[in-house]
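We modelled the chain as a single entity of 90 amino acids. Its sequence is:
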Amino acid sequence: MRIGADPGGVVKGIELLYLPGYSPNLNLIERLWRFVRKQLLDSTYYKDFEQFRTAIDECLDDLSTVHKGEMETLLTHKFQMFEDVPLLAA
């Protein structure tokens, strides 16, 4: 339990959502890295590391302009939730 949290998991009006140990589709940085990899690595050859690094920097710089529409849909917490789903024992 975190400081200031009641037993129900609410901290000053914020609901805590606990993610599974490995959940890359729910982790926003994993979504962003998948997008960057797709933009930069699919069928692209970089002669040296500096070209690769420059391409990553340019892609990240363009997130709020060139890729703005894609980021608005990709980096959202709107995902399907399931209520009262029984857990299956392994």
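As a brief sanity check on the tokenised model: Residues 28-41 form the longest helix (14 residues). The longest strand covers residues 10-11.
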